[in-house]
Design brief:
With about 270 residues, the chain is an all-alpha fold. The radius of gyration is 23 Å and the shape is elongated. Helix content is about 70%, strand content about 0%. A hairpin with a 2-residue loop joins strand 1 and strand 2. The termini are far apart.
Length: about 270
């Protein structure tokens, strides 16, 4: 058993550092040292962590996950230039693992939608198998947000449709992306497919029934459909949930179609 464990560890160290190819000799020793530093680095973004990671990539210049990990605190602090310098090095050595992350970050943080779409499409061509998922969402869900950000709603609809259909096909209806129905409802709303939007908002509520933003947009659509009383009930539901802190939010960015208290108050004035 002990010999088998040593054999497995040797394989791990031999393949995890440089371009996914076997390494030996001094390269292998350097890879092992880099792995040990990575495992002992401590909390993300701490002085210890950044120092250990810096040492790891200095010892093993092709240590891709070290570049990825050292980049994250710069992203969270808004230093996108430094973040990208490190992440690009991770991608150079392991594009299959890290190109999708760059595409996602370009979507979410930088709003570089064209750059993100280019990365997603390239990533798609180099993934031979496995899930096209990044940050707990389908690649196609993120692509839909890119197209929506570029005001290309028909392309956005095509991508979000694919995200939802593939999730249902592969995992079942309970495994649709967390806010995919919400996103599709708003895309349809902007395409003036109000009945389709209403159906999607109801589907979102069946999955997550305590999110103010969904009730708000459901109310907006109901008002457009002339169903005034139902619209008011949903906007009031949104107000109640919002006051309880049950609404979409992110510590770093504003989420697409995220609402604010002022949005709810303004909509109620029209009812």
């Amino acid at each position: 058993m002990e010999k088998w464990l040593i054999f497995c560890l040797n394989i791990l160290f031999a393949t995890s550092c440089k371009d996914n190819r076997p390494i030996k000799g001094q390269e292998r020793i350097d890879c092992e040292r880099a792995e040990l530093l990575y495992e002992q680095k401590g909390g993300q973004g701490s002085n210890r962590s950044q120092s250990y990671l810096d040492s790891a990539i200095s010892i093993c210049p092709t240590f891709s996950k070290g570049y990825r990990e050292i980049s994250v605190p710069y992203l969270k602090r808004g230093d996108y230039s430094t973040w990208l310098q490190y992440l690009d090095k991770a991608i150079n050595h392991d594009p299959e693992s890290y190109l999708g992350i760059r595409a996602w970050c370009k979507t979410k943080f930088l709003h570089d939608y064209r750059g993100a779409l280019k990365d997603f499409k390239t990533w798609d061509t180099i993934l031979y198998s496995g899930s096209r998922t990044v940050a707990d969402n389908s690649m196609y869900s993120w692509m839909a947000l890119c197209y929506a950000g570029l005001a290309d709603m028909p392309s956005a609809l095509g991508c979000i449709d694919r995200s939802i259909k593939e999730a249902i096909r592969d995992f079942g209806s309970d495994w649709v992306g967390l806010y995919d129905y919400f996103y599709r409802g708003n895309i349809k709303r902007e395409l003036n497919d109000l009945e389709g939007a209403l159906t999607d908002f109801n589907s979102q509520i069946r999955l997550t029934d305590k999110v103010a933003d969904v009730y708000y947009y459901k109310g907006v659509v109901l008002l457009q459909l002339g169903r005034r009383q139902e619209a008011k009930a949903n906007i009031l539901k949104a107000k109640s949930l919002f006051s309880e802190g049950k609404h979409m939010h992110d510590p770093y960015i504003e989420i697409p179609w995220q609402i604010w208290k002022e949005d709810i108050d303004a909509e109620l004035l029209t009812l």
